[in-house]
Write a structure and sequence with these properties.
With 87 residues, the chain is mostly helical. The chain is 64% helix and 0% strand. The chain is built from 3 helices and no strands. The chain is elongated. The relative contact order is 0.06.
Length: 87
């Protein structure tokens, strides 16, 4: 396991202390989880950007209502598969 040392100002250290209670017992645990969340968000953003390349790529005519149904279905499947949390 590799060690990474970071320095934060007193205000940020205080904010970390407040945010981590009662769910995390150590700052290290809290920061690891924050890093995991950020890396997952970056991966999801890359995936969604790649997915947008296919928007409008259909070669057949489909009604607007049907397109909306398809989009909704696909997004729900992707959200479930990728574990994306919508705010």
């Amino acid at each position: 396991m590799e060690s990474i040392t970071i320095k934060v100002n007193d205000e940020m250290a205080s904010e970390i202390e407040k945010a981590m209670k009662p769910n995390y017992s150590t700052k290290t645990e809290f920061i690891r989880e924050a890093l995991r969340d950020k890396m997952k968000q970056i991966e999801n953003d890359k995936f969604l950007k790649a997915l947008k390349k296919f928007q409008g790529a259909a070669k057949v005519h489909v009604s607007d209502d049907r397109l909306e149904e398809i989009r909704e279905q696909v997004m729900n499947e992707l959200i479930k598969k990728r574990g994306i949390k919508l705010d």
